[in-house]
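Entry:
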Amino acid sequence: MFAPHPDDEVFSMGGVLSQAASRGQSITIVYMTNGELGGDADTRIAEAHSVCEVLNAKAHFLNIPDSSVKATHALFLIIKKLVVDLKPDNVFLPSPQEYHADHRGTAACVWRGLQEAKFSGDAYCYEISRQCECNTLIDISTVMESKKALCDLYASQLTENNYTDVIKSINKARTYTLPAGIEYAEGLLKINNIYQNPKGYFKNIHENAFFDTLPYESPVISYLVRTKNRPELLDRCLASLANQAYKSKLDVVVVNDGGVDIDEVCIAYRTHFNRLKLVDIPESIGRAAAANTALSHAEGQFVNFLDDDDEIDTNHTQVFLNQWRRDNSIEILYRGVRVLRANGELMQTYNEQFSRGRMMMNNFIPIHAVTFSRKFIDIGCRFDDGLKSMEDWDFWIQLSRLAEFRHIPKITATYHMVGSSAASPHMQGLYDPQSHVNTVREKWLPKWTAVELGLMTSFLQQQNEQRFNAELEDARQSMMRTLTDG
């Protein structure tokens, strides 16, 4: 947490800090100034140490003269080094909408410092002296007394103003949209894209408040990308996302499953999306577990997977949106996919109507063809990390038992038959696909209901009839050729 002055940390986030301390989370508070214009500097620093002792937090003082926090390159680099050294999961900074110049200066410096540090965690703006832009409310009712006790440790400041009552009023007002049982809340703004210019970021917030009057007409869509050791293919994949006709509300999560460093690849695309989050996994955890990691970081109303060797056409997202805007009861929708050989030659297409009976027998829908509601994440649908392959088919079976798969017969994506990465299923010569098919079938066989078994039987009968009719037609054609030749 970056605090402009000693006391700002507890006035703004004393409740959240108390909760974090009770959970044993690691806390570091960086104090930008010594607060000398608000009283004796040594006294204020001693009070800050007392607060950190209660929170079991580490204190770091930059000792910038009070009212002198300026957005300078030197300060950007100091903050960059702190972030790189501490490796935080979450960073909290004041809102740029605060009244005090040091508050705004701290916001500007930390925002830029996070960019310099290539920060890929979550960043939040907090409010101190006024209600600022907010998209996250934290219930602090049960720790309000703890927050008050932390504020009381700044005895030198409580004689300057009735801060305690002012802060309680702000926290009380934040409960306006919350259930009646919540007495106090702290407001935060989770920054979806720290790599966007802060001026543009807040301008977009204000414009959206006026122009996005029908928020569900423009949902955030999360694209979840698994990758491993193929930065050149990841670059092509991300480029296809950046080229979407609809990209103002794309949330991109890249999971690096134990592969080489891909920071430089991702940095080039950070400003193209609503958010681009990179999740680095030091040692490979496998396809299914990497997919579950991606799901845990998705923030969109809808979700679409890609592997690094996949790409989507510019209209892929728009095709989904057009259908969903006509019928917002759609929870799962898929489009067609072309399969290309390494030389660019068309090998086949996947673009068939949905059949539950067929889905029970084999997979015919590539993972990046499907956009589905995050509802399925919220109710607990996950990939089976016991499966080494066919995990997407297993996931589709889960979803097919819960909702209807809608099909739009337009080809809007490409499936590249290249490589041997563990993040890609294109390894026909390296493993026995039938054994993985059998594993999924054996998993689900005891779970099928009588109705589902009936659907499977009907599909198999239909397949046999089609095969018989095809063989009959071949025999008829052969007989006709024989008669003609005779």
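The longest strand covers residues 405-416.
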